[in-house]
Design a protein that fits this description.
Layout lengths: L28 H11 L7 E5 L6 H14 L4 E5 H4 L15 E5 L8 H16 L3 E6 L11 H9 L1 E4 L5 H14 L6 H10 L4 H18 L5 H8 L2
Parallel strand pairs: 1-4, 1-5, 2-3, 3-4
Helix pairs in contact: 1-2, 6-7, 6-8, 8-9
Length: 234
């Protein structure tokens, strides 16, 4: 059995993090670029670097890319570097067997020469085996603090795209969109109340929506402002 098959991580994808559930205020080339990359239609055949500040949905997009790859019949894996960096770099062994590999939060290896070398080596094995790798980070490649020139060169050699933050109005629409996909009737006033009273970080807002959804099912109540107060703002 390969070491890839023995990864000591929870690598299951969230069911609701797909391209369909990722809110865009207007058509953006980012999702189209990710799809084209998986399909092999991109000129950058092997590498894709996705960057953007915390909370813009990079992890969601990586999960969605893996889900899309699976729909096309490709094997895929999405691994958070937050869980990997405390392990041996041997955890990356045999990953080049996977068609689409996603590694999240590249900035976390900025202080580790060992991990930078290991990911550079993985990148080369991906190319040799004609597979694909997508890396995400919280800043442009030049601002990541990567000290290994060869890895930095690999990152910028492939396709590079940015996930941009939403405005508050767009976050309201995004919350309503995600709620609708869950069968929840969330109006504009209630969504705006969530944003004004809780973290404006979309990941936190979606987590709060999940809590409210489960509580509303349990208590057989609609998600209203009084319900939010009693559930989240006690």
């Amino acid at each position: 059995m390969s070491k890839y098959n023995q990864l000591p991580l929870a690598v299951h994808l969230p069911d609701d993090e797909t391209f369909n559930s990722f809110y865009c205020s207007e058509p953006q080339p980012l999702i189209a670029n990710l799809k084209a990359f998986v399909e092999g239609k991109s000129q950058s055949a092997h590498g894709f670097y996705l960057f953007g500040q915390k909370g813009v949905g990079k992890s969601h997009l990586l999960h969605a890319t893996c889900a899309y790859a699976s729909q096309l019949g490709y094997s895929s894996v999405c691994l958070p570097l937050a869980e990997l960096v405390d392990m041996s770099v041997e955890v990356l062994a045999d990953l080049e067997q996977v068609d689409v590999i996603c590694l999240d939060d590249l900035q976390l290896i900025a202080k580790s020469n060992c991990w930078q070398r290991a990911i550079f080596d993985l990148y080369n094995r991906v190319i040799e085996n004609d597979k694909k790798i997508i890396l995400s980070g919280n800043d442009s490649a030049a601002q990541l603090g990567i000290r290994l020139p060869d890895l930095l060169s690999r990152i910028t050699w492939g396709m590079v795209d940015q996930a941009k933050p939403l405005t508050d109005d767009e976050k309201v629409s995004a919350l309503i969109h995600r709620a609708k996909l869950r069968g929840i009737d969330l109006n504009d006033e209630t969504a705006r109340y969530l944003i004004n009273r809780l973290s404006r970080d979309m990941a936190s807002l979606i987590d709060s929506l999940d809590i409210l959804d489960k509580a509303s099912i349990r208590e057989q109540r609609k998600i209203t402002i009084p319900f939010i107060k009693s559930t989240l703002l006690k």
